[in-house]
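Sharing a chain and its predicted structure for anyone who wants a worked example. Both blocks are below, sequence first, tokens second.
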Amino acid sequence: MKNRKTVYYKTYDEDIVRSRSQDLQLPPGYQRYHKNPVYCAVSSLIYAVFAPFALLYVKLVLHVKTVNRHVLRECRNTGYFLYGNHTQPIGDAFAPGLYVAPKRIRTIAAPSNLGIPMLGKILPMLGALIIPDSPGDMKDFLTAMGKYLEQRDCIVIYPEAHVWPWCTFIRPFPETAFRFPVRFHAPCFCMTTTYQKPKRGKKPRITVYFDGPFYADASLKPKEAQRRLHDELAACMALRSKNSNYEYIHYEKRDPT
């Protein structure tokens, strides 16, 4: 495609989109799960206020089409995990809430997101589940995740970790991202965002494919079950990504030398 932007990278762990608060650390005693009724009421109100914004953005700005979303109904009465490729800085934060409604989403996010001007302070109320920045904080993180699953919420995970805007291929991601479904014996789905040639203009059309549910094999040891789950979802997402036929941004690996 003529005049397309090219982004060069050395490793798949590079941050293509960086924030001023990239190295922000959580305050001591940071709380992820709240029982306070006032906090919960305000959280629900803010979530409801942002829902129309998310709908308008996804439908009128991104023009997203979904395929096979009905598979999510199979687990409508239980909490589950939803894995996706990370290619939209704003859309990936809000779109899943529309896909899984009336469930609420809890999106695993880095501490740096709390430093986003204006929006960062309320992200936890919108569902951001901030990952630990120290080993000692993992217990609270897992406890909160378990509570949200008990509430039948959807835990959204972008295992690629770093957002690469408009990327058309699935980047390698670690098996450890699948230890949570194994630990909590919870089902998981994948949503694969793909990009197609637009009818007019330069911005691609977006189609998101849903697949699942996938279950960890209870007959295997945890790490083996984790590996198999990773392989199943990675293969499924790689296959779906082949439906991309248009590069708005071209990603090219730079020679390490």
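Comments welcome. The longest strand covers residues 205-214.
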